[in-house]
UniProtKB/TrEMBL annotation:
<dbReference type="InterPro" id="IPR004843">
    <property type="entry name" value="Calcineurin-like_PHP"/>
</dbReference>
<dbReference type="InterPro" id="IPR029052">
    <property type="entry name" value="Metallo-depent_PP-like"/>
</dbReference>
<protein>
    <submittedName>
        <fullName>Metallophosphoesterase</fullName>
    </submittedName>
</protein>
<dbReference type="Pfam" id="PF00149">
    <property type="entry name" value="Metallophos"/>
</dbReference>
<feature type="domain" description="Calcineurin-like phosphoesterase">
    <location>
        <begin position="36"/>
        <end position="224"/>
    </location>
</feature>
<dbReference type="InterPro" id="IPR051918">
    <property type="entry name" value="STPP_CPPED1"/>
</dbReference>
Amino acid sequence: MKRRNFIHHTIFGGMGLHTLYAAPQVFSQTKPSPALRIGICADLHHDIIPDGPRRLKAFIDEMNSVKPDFIIQMGDFCVPQPTNRQIVDIWNEFKGPKYHVLGNHDTDGGYNHQQVVRFLNAQAPYYSFDSNGFHMIVLNANEEVQSKAYAGAVSVISDQQQEWLENDLSQTDLPVLVFCHQGLDNDAGGGVHQGSLIRALFDRNNAQGGTNKVKMVFSGHHHQDYHNTINGIHYVQINSMSYQWMGEKYAHAHYSAEIEKANPGLKYIAPYEDPIWAILTIYQDGTAEIKGRRTVFMPPAPEKLNRPKYHAGYPDVPYISDRKFQLIK
């Protein structure tokens, strides 16, 4: 039996799993072996934050110590201009496979998707790959607007990409993890415009196969920290490495006058003191565990500026929560 099929059947088949999945919060005290480990970071925003290299270097150094099966950044990394080459060089210091998701701000300044792909040495604007018996799908929700009725920021997955997605899902029998910059579970909060349609595509595919093939969907973009379960699929938001966006109403200085002058966008954010990221581990028994980093806001914190706690459905927090749950068969 091929290794990936062995892992697939070990995690999602065999005796006892049906009863195990019926009680998703009950876990064995004996820790099983890891089947897959991923380092995940999101929204570095090097073109806004003044210490992007320090933040990214901290992530890469830890990943080289932890040695996950691969790392992935969830978009809004940097624009593809020559002065940002240092960011790509730091990213490439990771001694293992590494992947990119395209963010809406990666094309700021008039760049296109292919320029970003070439600059990052990424695989494509959207693509898929296998790792340790799992199938990964990376989506690009930054395609041109197709509907005149849609007037928001670009967060669209084209009809062509949707067809590719459905075909790609049909071609694998492995458990699937999906990565997309904008949230597919946050329709009203700046997520993917057709998020409900993509979720329906996942649900339809799961129903047709008689098993929950799509297990988890990861997003960045929203600079928040939450986890939703919809029809058995876990939708996990990975908070920004760097800051929470505040906007003009809450404009405030956090850095020295010199730094603020050189970076005009800084007054619109609430920076985190230190970078944050997450490590996802999926164990042989189907348990998924997320270990996130925590820090604090650089003063003044959003609550000190009287920002409503649930202004966008979820609170402003400078951390990624630890989470543990059972993936449904």
